Amino acid sequence: MKPADRSSVLLRRLLAVLLMAGGLPALAQQPPSLELCMACHGPQGNSQNPQIPSLAGQPRIFVENQLVLIREGLRDIPTMKGVLDGLSDPDLIALAEYFAAQKPAPMAGAVDAPRYLRGRELAAQSLCGSCHLPAYQGRDQVPRLAAQHEAFLREVMLEYRDKPGLGRDTVMTNALRGLSNQQLDDMAHFLAHFGKIP
Ligand code: HEC
Ligand code: HEC
What we know:
The chain is mainly alpha-helical and 198 residues long. The protein folds into 2 domains: 29-105, Cytochrome c-like domain (Cytochrome Bc1 Complex, Chain D, domain 2); 113-192, Cytochrome Bc1 Complex, Chain D, domain 2, CATH 1.10.760.10. The termini are far apart. It has helices spanning 3-20, 34-41, 60-71, 89-100, 113-125, 129-132, 150-162, 170-176, 181-192. It binds heme C (2 copies). Residues 53, 123, 126-128, 130-132, 141-143, 145, 148, 153, 156-157, 168-169, 171-172, 175-176, 187 line the site of one heme C (HEC).
């Protein structure tokens, strides 16, 4: 398939998903393409798919930066190919403002206390909170990690550690160097369920 065909197939598939979901919410005050984002990133940016990151409550600057990188092809996300085509800088800023203002939903699923506690200890030792802040809510260009999907966190950390792509910040490769897969798993579990164990 030519790329153009593929993206129109994608758009039709997303439209079908939205129609099945019972029509669109009122979009009058919302930035362009929001309905498309929510088809993958979930209602108000709270993703229902463990492989797709939630955007709700992400710092505005982080989202803005990532959107520019993705639109320019500097961060390669095959499933988002074409989704940002034709969007202007003000469009991307409006999207970032919208998602930054949404409330992140607590992560569903059971907490495994030993893994949570190991992950908490390791994140503290590794000083992850010095950049992501002590409640892991992120700030400026540093993303929120609290209440993010565990599978996504694990995947993205493996990428940073083993094969950081173009456009990805090398501070994260340095932060994760030398940590084992088990240690990344434990931290992903802790961060996804952050705050559930006092
Ligand atoms: C077809 C599904 C799909 C659509 C539509 C989509 N995204 Fe994504 N998006 C993804 C996936 C999958 C990732 C994670 C890729 C990875 O593993 O690094 C992602 C990543 C992102 C990221 C980086 C988040 C992070 O924490 O690293 C941002 C920001 C983003 N998308 C914003 C948007 C916006 C805004 C829209 C609507 C204009 C949108 N996406 C539409 C699938 C989609
Ligand atoms: C020196 C500052 C710094 C430290 C320390 C740091 N991070 Fe990060 N982290 C960042 C920045 C900046 C980004 C965004 C990187 C990018 O744009 O590619 C990021 C991205 C991430 C992401 C991707 C999230 C997403 O939604 O895309 C994860 C997961 C993450 N960090 C986990 C950690 C963990 C776990 C630790 C501790 C072991 C840690 N970070 C330590 C600055 C830091």
